[in-house]
Amino acid sequence: IVTSSLYENIPKGMYIMNYANHKNKNYMKKIILALVLASVSVTCFGCNKKDSEAGDPTLETQETLSLEQAKWPLTFSHDIGAEDDADATEEPKEDATEGDAKSTQESAKASTAAAPDKSVTVTEHVEVTDASGQPVTDAAGVVQTEVVNVTEKVQVTNPSGQPVTNASGTVQTEVVNVTQAPPATDANNSGTDAATEPETVAYTPVIDVCRAYWLDMSQTCDFFFDGEFLVINFQVNEGIPDGNYPVTFKKTDIASWDVKKWDPVCINGEVAVNSEITAQDDLPESDFGLKINSVAAKQGDTVQVTIDLSNNPGFCGFVVEVEYDKSAMKIISTKSGADFDSVVNYVAE
Fold first, then answer.
1. For residue 338, what are the contacts with CB-CB under 8 A and spacing of at least 6?
2. Do 259 and 16 meet the contact criterion of CB atoms below 8 Å apart?
3. Which long-range contacts (CB under 8 A, 24 or more apart) does 199-204 make?
4. I need a surface site. Which of 62, 128, 255, 319 has the fewest CB within 10 A?
5. Which three-class secondary structure string do you get for 35-83?
6. CA distance between the termini of the chain
7. pTM for the whole thing?
8. 145-195 residue pLDDT tens
């Protein structure tokens, strides 16, 4: 249990990472507590011991967290949403009913604007008749038919949708062709029934977050390595449209043993589904950099997205958040990268 008096005596410089506005504070408080208390145990242990020997009863009972305890294994969490920080000022929300109505109207307008009219005129075979209304037959006595458009009589309306009337108040009508959507066809346009075609899933992007955090102050030093850092395995959902689905950094809080916060150059990536991968920048030659490596995939594939780093200045704790579209893909597993894992295990031994 940390008392308020202990917090009052913590030098401001001991705060290693600034998580004051972070949405998920349960994880952050653990890391802040470990970093702060571990620093306090290093800087204050000697004077506490000296003062206790002098007979100060309050300092004799004060406990500090050992460096061996200031350690958390690499942990991932996802399906945690991509909302803004909980402490951030929220914008006023519209009335739910009004907002839903506006959203529906805007979606309808967008669909109408984006989708061209692919309807076809409905036709039917009718008998050919002569001037007296009798069926016309050929030399063999077969009744002749012809293909005509199916029409219907509808009211004429003005731009606001109101019926148009003439001077005497009679509603005006007009004859229009009846139309319908064309039947589904296979790749050879052979008219295969739509029921045999693969089902297309309605697609709406939903951005989510995968968070990774880790801390090890037990070695009283930083960890140095370059190469493969973190690994996220995705399964691409069936039925999604072809395209490029971004996988991007949302947050990179990385801190060193000597109370430095690093700000790496971040290079985002993507999962290209039946699409060409967008060209990516290389990791910087001299600056600290993080890169999400893009991959190609097809619907239903399982792909491995790796995060690499270069010119690592050394760190002993981090929180890294990555955003992805969970309507397009889901996370099936996560792990430490080979280079990060080997160095941590080696130092820990």
1. 227, 228
2. yes
3. 199/239, 200/239, 201/237, 201/238, 201/239, 201/240, 203/239, 203/240, 203/241, 203/327, 203/328, 204/327
4. 128
5. HHHHHHHHHHHHHHHHHHHCCCHHHHCCCCCCCCCCEEEEEEEECCCCC
6. 30
7. 0.54
8. 777 777 777 777 887 778 888 888 888 888 777 666 655 555 455 554 545
